[in-house]
Amino acid sequence: MKVVVTGGAGFIGSHVVQTLEGVSDVTEVVVVDDLSTGRAENLLGTTAEMVQGSVLDDSVLDKVLPGAASVVHLAAVPSVPRSIDDPLRSHHANATGTLTVLEAARRHRIPQVVLASSSSVYGANTALPKREAMRPMPLSPYAVSKLATESYALAYRACFGLPVLPVRFFNVFGPRQPLNGVYSAVVPAFVAAALEGRPLRIFGDGRQTRDFTYVGTVAQVLVAAVTRRVSVPDVINLAFGTRTSLLELITELEEVLGRKVEVTHDQARPGDVRDSQADGSTLRSLFPDIQPVPLRAGIEATVTWRMGQDTLAAREAAASLAV
Ligand code: NAD
To answer: Can you tell me the mean pLDDT for 216-226?
Structure first.
């Protein structure tokens, strides 16, 4: 079985590739990634074929899609603040990019397309937990582009019978999540600051809540969806219904590090939602055997990975000085 992973050199994508490689039915994994935020090094140790190119480019998709049993479409410009700085770029990569992938999947009669959407689509709809049937109320261009992603997928299912599985990720974290400066997600930003002895920067009061999901769990669900050919007539949440405030996240981090950290508060950012918690019942009914990695274990794995990166960077800096 051949599987194509768009955005496979990215944070979540590289974990999906790694997990796919452990499945005996999967004989070939091909990654399409323009390396805009992804890194080829994320695929070191895998045998995946890396095709550098954009999902907006038909010639790239026509080259890699033939013979694929599934496409896992993760390629996107994945950030709320980035989309506020450059809404058109988000739209092109996320909405037009998805449409281009779906068109190519239709052309090549691909039996399944799994796509990444986001909890950000719930936006201003404050009801908790977030049920898939709730009205989406996007608050950012990113959220709109992700709503377009899942809506196009469902439209392709309705109009062309394309088996799709659009999945709303919540706050995914873990090893290989990039820092990306001001665009950084909260867990890598906090872990890096804590390890470097800098204050942790909180936007708002820190009582905003998130449903953090460890990246290994996300990869496990996506790979099970591929191997079991799961396709449902609606979008599904991919999170397990936990609700952790940023202040609680910091306490977890302090317990993992065995010391207190310093924090600073800045103004809440536009486009950020206040609270996020999934109703994970559809997910649990589709994948009853998958148990999420607990937050504490996920933070430990992330800290360990980050410390390894820092050691590597220190060794490389020392080696370059020695030359
Ligand atoms: P990431 O930036 O690490 O991965 C995105 C990948 O897509 C990168 O490797 C990037 O180089 C690639 N890419 C971007 N534009 C491309 C294009 N035009 N053609 C080919 N490749 C392109 O981010 P991630 O966190 O791994 O996100 C993966 C997916 O999950 C995205 O669709 C994102 O919107 C979605 N998502 C992530 C989270 C999260 O918490 N990380 C939450 C909700 C949704």
So the answer is: 98
Q: Is 73 exposed, middle or buried (0-12, 13-18, 19+ CB in 10 A)?
A: buried
Taking the C-alpha atoms of residue 18 and residue 10, their distance in angstroms, rounded to an integer, is 12
- Minimal-distance CA residue to ligand 1 atom 41: 172
Q: Does the beta carbon of 7 sit less than 6 angstroms from any atom of ligand 1? A: yes
Q: Indicate the top mutation candidate among 4, 32, 37, 92 to test ligand 1's pocket, ranked by most ligand atoms within 8 A of CB.
A: 37
- Asked if residue 102 belongs to a domain, the reply is yes
Q: pLDDT by residue (tens digit) across 54-68?
A: 999 999 999 999 999
In angstroms, what is the span from residue 174 Cα to ligand 1's centroid?
14
**Domain carrying residue 283:** 2-171+215-240+279-287
Contact 165, 230 (CB under 8 A): yes
- The rounded Å distance from CA 255 to ligand 1 centre is 30
**What atom in ligand 1 is closest to the CA of residue 176?**
3
Residue 13 maps to which CATH number?
Answer: 3.40.50.720
pTM of the model: 0.96
Between β-strands 209-210 and 244-245, what pairing exists: parallel, antiparallel or unpaired? antiparallel
Specify if 177 maps to a domain: no
In a domain, 308, yes or no: no
- Number of domain units in the chain: 1
